[in-house]
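Board notes, transcribed. Complex of a protein with flavin-adenine dinucleotide.
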Amino acid sequence: MHVDVLIVGAGLSGVNAAYRLRTRTPRRTYAILEAREAIGGTWDQFRYPGIRSDSDMFTLGYPFRPWPNPQSIADGPSILGYVRDTAAMYGIDREIQFGHKVILAHWSTVDARWTVEAVHDGQPVTVTCSFLYLCSGYYSYDRGHVVDFPGQDSFTGRVVHPQFWPEDLDYTDKNIVVIGSGATAVTLVPAMADKAAHVTMVQRSPSYMVSRPQRDPLADKIRARLPAPLAHRAVRAKNLVLGTIFYQFLRRFPTRAAMKLQLGAAAALGGVVPLNPHFMPRYKPWDQRLCLVPDGDLFKALAGKQASIVTDHIETFTSDGLRLKSGRELPADIIITATGLRMIALGGITLSVDGRAIDPGQTTVYKGMMLSGVPNLAWCVGYANASWTLRADLTSRYVCRLLNHMDRKRFTTCTPSPQAAGSGRPILNLTSGYVARAAAFLPKQGTRRPWRSRQSYLVDHFDLSYSPVADGVMRFTRS
Ligand SMILES: Cc1cc2nc3c(=O)[nH]c(=O)nc-3n(C[C@H](O)[C@H](O)[C@H](O)COP(=O)(O)OP(=O)(O)OC[C@H]3O[C@@H](n4cnc5c(N)ncnc54)[C@H](O)[C@@H]3O)c2cc1C
């Protein structure tokens, strides 16, 4: 099979990419290879109690399809339904080949095409394409980040990683310990507190948290007055602007911002749980992801004593729980290791260009999506500091612009210059453990445009929508 554009991945971004290709460069053929048996990526894979977005659905949803539900912070099944319905609505689901895991891709300059090798039912499958568009997300679907805690084998209860939630896990009246301080732990603790005997969140170091209403009253008013497409645009624009202002405030005035976040937490906790050390991180707001607490659910669970929080180091697992460095013992029937994701670059696909192996860690990202010296390939990576889809959609629209430019000028190949301006920092501007662990093998960003990733929708919107495609850095050739 040969297609003009091969999309890898049928998650939120892959469906978005297919929609943009269909509408902005409709004569082009495309196909989607998806390793799993389902649409939805993240929102199909993660099934733990309470799974939800931590950004609003007007910006996490697609700009072209209004978010239909009342909640602005939505549960995982509703998001999955939305992605699936969108794929069905535009006939994108018919273009997906499920159970096809892409392993290798070789570029031939002579043929101006990629030869992509996938595995389906244990058998190799080869597809060729002119442009390879990786909408493969940013983490491994095979393995989460697993910490090798001492004594883990001696624990007689069940250990669960949230990425692989067992359908049969009954935690009614059980003592639960959740290890972690990120978005997953913050979601799990209140969600499990209703049914469990008690839930204890054990964190080595705290995160910043902010409470926001799950349902946005202003969005409700706008939606009641305007037709759905217009209301979606208006609420999206509002959330984009307010989100940008809030992020800039947190980054530019870190001391005041940290105090504001901590005062918010203190008010919600009503003095039941001390702020120090549990809510006083040692880094500046947004050096690592800010955790969202919808309707203050975590604070309510902690204040109501169905849950508790412990800031300490784990010395060892014991037969019936954990022993901490402080000497404290935490009994547990179930331990949930919310220790994070294992980031991978480019869907874990091995790339080569004219027989030369590409080490993603040695490449620099051009406009946050293409790789220095690698022709006709883009990787769709969303924002870490705002809704993923905001950048994923800009990326897909830019890919369409690029392809249309190549059509007009009859170019067959586009390659960002192999000489990037400065290089060194990972593609994501976070100091979080999962980014630091992956730094060596993630593509880097440079120091100047178009090599620098700014993590700003307004800057990217202008750059990706209006700046010339032929910028002197992208090299175009005809075969
Ligand atoms: C628990 C959780 C909650 C999150 N909440 C938010 C949020 O609230 N807001 C936000 O902005 N972001 C959030 N994120 C980030 C989230 O991943 C993105 O929002 C978005 O879902 C990413 O979509 P995607 O399609 O790019 O990637 P994914 O959802 O990861 O989908 C990638 C798809 O590509 C497939 N694939 C990967 N490699 C290959 C291969 N080699 N061959 C074939 N197929 C392949 C995968 O099977 C998968 O279906 C969250 C992430 C997690 C894990």
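The mean pLDDT is 94. Residues 2-142+342-477 form a domain with the FAD/NAD(P)-binding domain fold (CATH 3.50.50.60).
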